Amino acid sequence: MKRRNFLKGAAIGGAATALAAPAVAQTQPKVQWRMTSGFPRSLDTIFGAAEVFAAHVKAMSGGNFEIEVFPSGEIVPTPQAVEAVGTNTIEMAHTCSYYYWGIDPTFAIGTAVPFSLNARLMNSWLYEGGGNDLLNAFYAKHKLYGMPGGNTGVQMGGWWRKEINSVDDLKGVKMRIAGIGGKVLEKLGVVPQQIPGGDIYPALERGTIDAAEWVGPYDDEKLGFNKVAPYYYYPGLWEGGPTVHFFVNLDKWNELGPEYRAILTNAAAYANTDMMAKYDARNPPALRSLIAGGAKLKAFPADVIDAAYVAANEVYDELSASNADFKSIIDNVKAFRNEGYLWYQVAEYTYDTYMIRNRTKG
Amino acid sequence: MKRRNFLKGAAIGGAATALAAPAVAQTQPKVQWRMTSGFPRSLDTIFGAAEVFAAHVKAMSGGNFEIEVFPSGEIVPTPQAVEAVGTNTIEMAHTCSYYYWGIDPTFAIGTAVPFSLNARLMNSWLYEGGGNDLLNAFYAKHKLYGMPGGNTGVQMGGWWRKEINSVDDLKGVKMRIAGIGGKVLEKLGVVPQQIPGGDIYPALERGTIDAAEWVGPYDDEKLGFNKVAPYYYYPGLWEGGPTVHFFVNLDKWNELGPEYRAILTNAAAYANTDMMAKYDARNPPALRSLIAGGAKLKAFPADVIDAAYVAANEVYDELSASNADFKSIIDNVKAFRNEGYLWYQVAEYTYDTYMIRNRTKG
Question: Tell me, what CATH number does A72's domain have?
């Protein structure tokens, strides 16, 4: 009897229910987006971060928000990724901001500039030091909204066919290195080359180029550089804490309700932490394997690093002179870096120093 | 006309709509939980991580999943927090796993044990090295599900009334230090004391204790220790990457649908990254201010650290002899640490070394 009444009441109120339905749908609308990755599927850690992100967004939205991830070049080539997002050809990209420094050098700061922050301080600057807000004020000019979405940690200084003993040995070296890092090394006599990942190995093998930087042990091992350019230099002084970004078309971002914006924000933070966690777990065995395969691990000579530091500051000054966005953001990063490392050197660095020297004793 | 038909159709279909409604509600049920923090509201960074988490969960669920956060002691005292969650007195706690090592020493590993992983390697072990799964298999015995939810980075070695120049100076020192760190220093002659945060200052001032460890510059400054125990030692060798956990009652966790489990997982990852970001941004000015206020920054003498390392390994062996969970998880952490620092020392450490020495030159 009561049940019948309930059903009857429901039937009477049916029209109201149907009218109210859009309000329910409004909180969880079906969304289908496409995201281009700046990376090939074979780089499973960095490409995989976009898949981790998409899977979490789908799970958190109960399947309502689906983002299809495409490897670099399948629907958009990497060099056009942010333009494709800005013009809403696709809704999202997962790529390195510094690939687009040719559009505006300010893009470089979002990923890494030489002698900038390590991964942890980069996160601190982005999330807490105003970095995300500063970058997004800039990205908005390109109709983009950016969220940190992965980090590799300090990269390696690349694979070199010949040993280098001083800054003089850099003169005339043809090196595959992109972006502002190339501009800095150019001041030291290096001739920077832009070569896609798949073409680096044959270029090194034939001697068309003398050196190439890529990422770190786990990704580098896949490409087999140790067989053709055995000197493996560290650290990658041009990439202290390279951040990968999720870029969303700004209008699409603004159209999302607060629920979906929060879901994307949290999924990006998960992917950011997860990618760094994966590199830190996967790099050690890869490093062992590379050394067993003939890689000769070498630190850059001190005068090379010092000269690169001077050159980097010159490059920043030159870019700052003609670009107000670059100047204001790089000045902010530098101030944060100088303070950040003040504390970092005390407890963090001395702890790491001890553990590095004694790790195998316990 | 069409609109009328639509309304009529809706009215006819009203019963079906009403019956289908629970399916919609099932994907986003209203949930109201309570979470106790292990920390007072005054520790805004570490207490705040629970508020950040709750705010993100609420936003992602469109307001349907609400978690009320209570400071330590308001509904549950910190020492009873995991028991209260395990028995479902409250649904969640945000606290340090190592506070509960008296229940089982295995709890200590979830936060930090002496000479273990730094914050980044801890994340790597937890998310990618199997750490979360190993810990959750243990936590399940206490009806808990744990998620990493914050990190302080390497802590400081505490405030000391007198300078220490060798391990002999530790003999008889009454020090406020909790957990396994206290057990390790006990082997070096320290007399560990368990004192709540608010009682440390008067105990140091009166000389009832000789030393006290707390967190790092930002939190320590609030308590004014520099005025009564000026020697500020580093590093906190018993806490390399202390992780704070979100604990959920295991039955409550299992009752959640995949959507809400994903929402909690991602919000915890956001809080984890955000808390570390905040400490890294807030510690540098606090360190400057403490030094201006009379703190004397000192590195622990080398023989103190060496003796503590030996003692820590003895403590691990003793605990491992009688506790299979502790043994299997500490062995796993040690193996991960020894491999993790193998790679960390190459690019990461040399980069940091250079930046620390040269940060103010650019």
Answer: 3.40.190.170
